[in-house]
Write a structure and sequence with these properties.
The structure holds 2 protein chains of 2 kinds. By secondary structure, chain A is an alpha/beta fold. Chain A contains 10 helices and 14 strands. Helix content of chain B is 39%, strand content 23%. In chain B, helix 6 links the parallel strand 4 and strand 5. The chains are: A alpha/beta, B alpha/beta.
């Protein structure tokens, strides 16, 4: 399964919902962090308890979550966000025991609901599965069984696979055990702009200008067809070049369809205020 | 009545632009009252833009008629004089084809020489922007408070002059502008040698913003003004990239209590009214300039074939 296919078929990490058991494959740390952070952020915002199972030092995870704009302080203190190393989670039983890991995840889900969270979501870095670890050969077994932790429950999972670490045939087998795949956001060459999209939904993060507005045009084209909701709370900068694709898309919508900017950042609000009536085709939802 | 009809016919055919050179508030009040009276009598739109501090005395002079006047505070409106033509145009758009009466006092004590030079550019461009429109404009200037050089500019840019309560007469030094008259605006003083300097292409657009943001933070500019300045410089740099060969130069420095950003490129902006009137939604370059004029406290634009320099000023306080 190629990355291209994953991109076409997958869903943005932000839209992973309860019941989903999703995998993401990546070939760079930047790709991995982007998707993982989006999954954690949307879980925290939705009121889920979030477990992050790190292959290595949990402190590294906190550093990149912060740098991706996830506010981790309060959720860590309250217990909404829990970051554990693989040896405290997957590999707790002096090796990997799929049955006991599934059991612990079932318990974690019920604990989260009992504690009043809306649901439970977990994301794990699966790199340990490619190393010489007792039980790691049962990874496929595990991915089959763990499905039941999420299916039909207020729980979701994102399993992170580094394509560089696994043999191709094995990775394709493991990936195939996930009902859904997460799609990587579109990222501008300099990393200044990240765009996730699905039908009717676009999330724009970073700085939008002449150099990267074509990415937004691509995402809007793929999201078009009905109403389009655009998450713009983390759009830190936008100028006239950047708003042009939004204005053009909004103007070209069928009369009964809408383009709505959700939670626009202050940068977006300021530009729309200056444009006044010229920005009318774009709706705002504070 | 006959007199008003004659005036109406005359005014309907061309823009009338008169400077009032006054001494003291009594002359100011009486000249404005006399100027707007025919408009108020005819029930025509009357708009007066003068500093807020003068609103109260003007209201009491106009008495019962004051409520028919649109009174605007010139201090924020005219902070950047390049915004005024657009503001007048938008306000008068509500009365298409009607004769309108406009009083605007864009210079006041305490304005800098740079600001007053842009006031005169604005006055010169009014003659172009409103040519053929049925507007009468009176522009009061306080001869006791405004410097001689600015007053010379006032005489150059107003076809009609009135001294105090005397009748208006043609200004001998008025020259019909094709572009801003050669004396206005004057050349820009060179930037200080210590100015922050960067060249940019599309690849450096983000770096340009970061540089401006960092300098603005270093001088303590408030977040909202910082955001406006970053947006303004970004729009100007974008214009260089799109319309002036793809590259330009940025300089940043502080001058008295202002942060100044200068964008220099090889482009030429032939339309002297560019950026002064809100352009249609599909106009690229004019729209950027228009936005810059709304964002900055002062904009100095100097353009000729082969080169354009635009300086934007943001006040560090106020």
């Amino acid at each position: 399964m190629s990355c291209g296919l994953v991109d076409e078929d997958g869903i943005p990490a932000e839209l992973v919902g309860h019941g989903d058991h999703v995998c993401v494959e990546f070939t760079s740390v930047a790709e991995q962090q982007e998707v993982a952070a989006a999954f954690v952020r949307s879980g925290l915002e939705a009121g889920d308890r979030v477990w992050y199972l790190a292959d290595g030092d949990p402190r590294r995870v906190l550093v990149f979550l912060r740098s991706c704009g996830v506010l981790v302080g309060e959720p860590l203190a309250s217990g909404q966000l829990v970051v554990l190393a693989a040896r405290q989670s997957y590999l707790r039983d002096s090796g990997f025991d799929p049955e006991r890991t599934v059991e612990r995840l079932n318990r974690a889900r019920e604990d989260a609901l009992a504690a009043g969270y809306r649901g439970f979501r977990v994301t794990g870095e699966m790199g340990w599965g490619a190393r010489v670890t007792p039980g790691a050969e049962r990874l496929e077994d595990y991915e089959r069984q763990v499905q039941a932790v999420f299916e039909g429950h207020r729980a979701a999972a994102l399993c992170q696979y580094d394509r560089r670490m696994f043999a191709t045939a094995r990775l394709d087998r493991v990936i195939g055990l996930h009902p859904k795949r997460a799609r990587h956001p579109l990222i501008s060459a300099d990393g200044a702009l990240r765009i996730s999209h699905a039908s009717g939904w676009v999330r724009v993060v970073g700085e939008l200008d002449l150099s990267n507005r074509s990415l937004l045009a691509v995402a809007l084209g793929r999201a078009a067809g009905g109403d389009i909701h655009i998450e713009a709370d983390q759009l830190e900068f936008i100028d006239l070049s950047g708003i042009q694709p939004l204005l053009e898309t909004a103007a070209a919508l069928a009369p009964d369809h809408r383009l709505v900017l959700e939670h626009p950042s202050s940068a977006v609000c300021r530009l729309l205020e200056l444009l006044g009536a010229d920005a009318e085709p774009i709706e705002l939802s504070p | 009545m006959t007199r008003f009809t004659a005036l109406e016919t005359h005014a309907a055919e061309e823009f009338s632009h008169e400077a009032l050179l006054y001494r003291g508030s009594e002359q100011w009040l009486e000249a404005i009252r006399a100027f707007v009276e025919p408009g108020l009598a005819a029930g025509e739109p009357v708009m007066i833009a003068v500093p807020l501090a003068k609103h109260e005395m003007l209201r009491s002079r106009l008495g019962g008629q004051a409520s028919a006047v649109t009174l605007l505070d010139m201090t924020p409106l005219g902070r950047n004089p390049a915004r005024l033509i657009g503001a007048y145009t938008e306000a008068l758009a509500a009365h298409p084809g009607r004769r309108a009466h406009l009083v605007g006092e864009p210079a006041w004590p305490g304005r800098t020489a740079d600001e007053n030079a842009e006031v005169i550019v604005h006055e010169a461009l009014c003659n172009l922007a409103f040519k053929g429109l049925p507007y009468r404009a009176l522009c009061p200037y306080d001869v006791e408070a405004i410097d001689p050089s600015t007053l010379a500019g006032v005489r150059d840019t107003h076809p009609l002059l009135a001294e105090g309560l005397g009748a208006a007469h043609p200004s001998p030094s008025y020259t019909e502008p094709v572009a801003p008259s050669p004396r206005w605006p004057g050349p820009l003083v060179p930037p200080p040698s210590g100015a922050t300097y960067a060249r940019y292409t599309l690849a450096e657009l983000r770096r340009v913003r970061r540089l401006v943001r960092r300098r603005a933070m270093a001088v303590g500019l408030a977040p909202a003004k910082r955001r406006d300045l970053v947006l303004a410089v970004d729009e100007l740099a974008t214009n260089s990239i799109l319309h002036a060969g793809g590259h330009g130069e940025l300089r940043i420095w502080t001058s008295e209590n202002r942060l100044v950003c200068e964008i220099k490129d090889h482009g030429h902006i032939p339309d002297p009214l560019a950026g002064r009137i809100r352009p249609p939604a599909d106009n690229g370059r004019g729209r950027g300039l228009w936005l810059v004029n709304q964002l900055a406290d002062l904009v100095q634009l100097r353009t000729q074939p082969g080169g354009t320099t635009i300086r934007i000023h943001i006040a560090l306080t106020g």
